[in-house]
Here is the input.
Amino acid sequence: MILDKLENADLYFECVPRLEKFVHFFNNNDLEELPPCKIKLDGDDMIVNIMDFEGKQEGDCKLEAHKDYIDIQIPLGADEVMKWKAQVDCQDVLEDYDEGEDVEFYEDKAETSIVVPKGYFVVFFPSDAHAPGIAAGQKYRKVIVKTRVQ
Here is the structure.
């Protein structure tokens, strides 16, 4: 997992596939003004999902992990609380891996809580189980970038 300011994203271009392409897109578009949508920046290898959603109670947020894609998550408004646990330590599968959706859900409890403020980004690799959007009733606007593992 990586948590850092967007202004430092260039430090991670070597370890996060297509991050440089996304940063160029981010810097040249006002994502807060775009309607919720999905944009393919590099075919199915990089998909940008601009979304509005309401946070949930912590108990309703399940850990998830991916195999084929890395998640880059960027809050555009309110700070977002997320939970994390090493995927290898997740033992209680809630929903088996869905290849079409590239996701597996776990009943395990997260080990770490993080706050991702506006102006920051978090990268979740396939080794990172995560649960975003923890704040019942909080309205969020965020960007989730799915970039295929190389």
Remarks:
- Residues 28 and 74 are 16 Å apart (CA to CA).
- Helices lie at 19-27.
- The chain has a mean pLDDT of 96.
- The longest strand covers residues 139-148.
